[in-house]
């Protein structure tokens, strides 16, 4: 490709992404005596949903109860085999981390990581990163994967762009995608900035099945004081406070939601929709935590309240809140070992589809990363050790066109990103309508035609955004095609 230096190397197995699922997959593969290279968009472990999570694992002593609750939360659209695997293996996978020194607080239905709110997931990433290094996993930070190499129907490696603007053609016998979700494509979100849906797009381009992209979970209360705080009000604190609009009306009472308790769990979707309606009508919504009774909270909950009070004044005044994109349930269709319909391509974590159905039960996301990370890593290792490495010449023509659209357009990358987030929020937020979805697709096409004008240092960001544009189209198209209100997908016009 003209204008780009291309560096080449080989490995047995590539893992893309250094969140919990990627690290666990890499560890499992390395333990199986496979040469493993883990590529990560930022420094290893940073910019991941696990890092920014509240560190809660769903943990049930009885697998059957865990299965029942997971299926109910997913409105029975879940893949039953994946649910069974999760519920049977989650306790063991969590126990492995505890044995390696992860400090937790164990309760009847969940295990919570001990640490400083709000980014309790740092302890999980720290434990897995230490384990990966100890095992001998090779880490390649600041590598943005932009294309899967496919030869004769099999994945044969990736093309990645480093922070200096150099392209890397990395051949491998198998690839495990652990690239996370797409929440950062929405105006309001609590995801890391790298969650732009590139994995879905690259997998579909390679021929993988990608399902149910319209199912995006929104959390109803993220603090919004003029900028994205990425801090949500925990469910137990929501119960003790009031949610009011700027006219002083209690949102739960106005929309008939007062009977849903705890509302941020049981009534999460309906409350998100109610606040979204208020915002659409031009009204701000506030969380008033002045009536929270601290003596009724446990120590962990008091620490969360203290943080919110110290940073935002939650205990002293009402603070502005918005619903936010929180988790993507749709994704790449996998089996119980992370295999896709494309030979050599595996996936796990939020990029994968099937476990959660139409909505996700709280605590299952972290458990999923450990269970399916290990399974995908082992399966990919077995596949890689039995397969000869491809030596064909890859076709990079489509990549040339992609790079051209990032450099010869009109908009600067950040302006392009702001427009994309606004389009997706307005057209495909907590409440969808046919005319809004149609308009969203039109605006997506307008953005595509305008393109981006990025300099070399901005090229990794521009490529991620352009992939995000394609992922946003997939979400809107899914929402437009699905006229059944179920789980996190709600159309007001059906």
Task: Please sum up the structure shown.
The chain is α/β, with parallel strands linked by helices and 494 residues long. It is built from 16 helices and 20 strands.
List keywords for this structure.
alpha/beta; FAD/NAD(P)-binding domain; globular; 20 strands; 16 helices; single chain; 494 residues; five-stranded antiparallel β-sheet; Flavocytochrome C3, Chain A, domain 1
Helix and strand layout, with pairings?
Elements: E1 6-10, E2 13-16, H1 20-31, E3 36-39, H2 49-52, E4 56-58, H3 63-73, H4 80-99, E5 104-106, E6 110-113, H5 122-135, E7 138-140, E8 143-151, E9 154-162, E10 167-171, E11 174-177, H6 198-205, E12 210-211, E13 216-224, E14 228-232, H7 235-240, E15 242-245, H8 251-254, H9 263-266, H10 268-280, E16 285-288, H11 299-312, E17 319-328, E18 331-333, E19 345-347, E20 352-353, H12 364-386, H13 397-407, H14 413-428, H15 434-450, H16 459-481
Parallel strand pairs: 1-10, 2-3, 2-11, 3-7, 11-19, 18-20
Antiparallel strand pairs: 4-6, 5-6, 8-9, 9-10, 12-18, 13-14, 13-17, 15-16, 16-17
Helix pairs in contact: 1-5, 1-12, 3-4, 4-12, 6-16, 13-16, 14-15, 14-16, 15-16
